[in-house]
User: What shape does this take?
Amino acid sequence: MTPSDVLALAKERNVKIVDFKFCDLHGSWQHFAVPVSELTEDVFSDGLGFDGSSIRGWRGIEASDMLVIPAAETAFIDPFSEFPTLSISCDVEDPITREPYDRSPRGIAKKAEEYLKSTGIADTAFFGPEAEFFIFDDVRYDSTSNHSFYYVDSIEGTWNTAKEEFPNLGHKIRHKEGYLPVPPADKHVDIRNEMILTMIEAGIEIEREHHEVATAGQAEIDIVFDTMLRTGDKMCLYKYIVKNVAYKHGKTATFMPKPIFGDNGSGMHVHSSLWKDNKPLFAGDLYGGLSQEALWYIGGLLTHAPALCAFTNPTNNSYKRLVPGFEAPVNLAYSARNRSAICRIPTYSASPKSKRVEFRCPDPSANPYLSFAAIMLAGLDGILNKIDPGDAMDKNLYDLPPEEAANIKTVPESLRGSYEALAADHEFLTKGDVFTEDFVENYIDIKRDEYDKVRLRTHPIEYYMYFDV
Assistant: This one.
């Protein structure tokens, strides 16, 4: 849509409120609203001012004046507002220089797309994420100096087989047995279907939805691939819709990677491919039907994977899921079909257009703009430097003999490991000034602080293990 299209839509739908949304460093939408009378074509070029001093990860009060610049193509009618509301995603600019704000995630994705074109290798990067999440009925948590706990519950939870539910009708999902059951075991079909219909109405194309492996309402909704920037926009909207539809039904949705112990966590496998002049660059006659460029792209992903994890797995909780031998791939290897390798080449179709690389370690706590940009830059670095990914591993990497497993490198075991890897390896991110040194340093400081917040706190399991020493 153009700005004039947006104004026409607002008039057609009798819009009263315009909501301007932008993404913070952690991947969460922030917003402010104005009456529709304030929306003019000039706003799309001149922007609207706001105070950015309290936005997480941004500069403080000494540089707090900011502009939001609405992206007309992202406009949609908000399905959750009581009054007719038009929502628009925005870029953020410095009001004095009118340059994109270098800590704005959407701006980084735009710069990444520009850098891709400047290399001459490709002109378009397509991304298709597969985000998973949990739908809970109850969540409570606290952490103070003298107590710490969390409690989540779900009508599907296997721990509720003996609960008095007046009546308890059974059909609870056992741990790791939640993949694709039908009702009455799957109790969220209608909620997930409402989610995807709401997404479609808001402009997101959907591939499928289904129950995932874990008990307690784990779900997956897959969206159709699109360009990096548009997929980032759609993932922000995706999370907004999932959370609000769940809330509407008296439930709560979380994209936290590992909210329950003893069952699968939530991942976000990310499919990517490069195209030039409307032709796929990853199709060829080498391993898995890939081109040489695709194999070099994989080489870049494997080489930079430890640093990538700072963006694709950006929370302390992410590393409760990235555990060798469990549900998430951690081994720095690639394979066709084999889901235990960190890079997989899907083989569902022989069409050259379907050739892509699936990076399987990311989780849905990732900021989509930052993680997609970082993945593409790592792959591009592989192509530019012709990084050989080595031989494919067409075996179950979760079940290797110890002596063989010891020869395969893995992703970091903690958030600290990932930000230390990023500190040592980020030159591939700063090419084309996509990520600035200031951004990387600030990001590492934020992640170091997050790591320390967990490291310094007493954990409840420590009482179980050590109270009687």
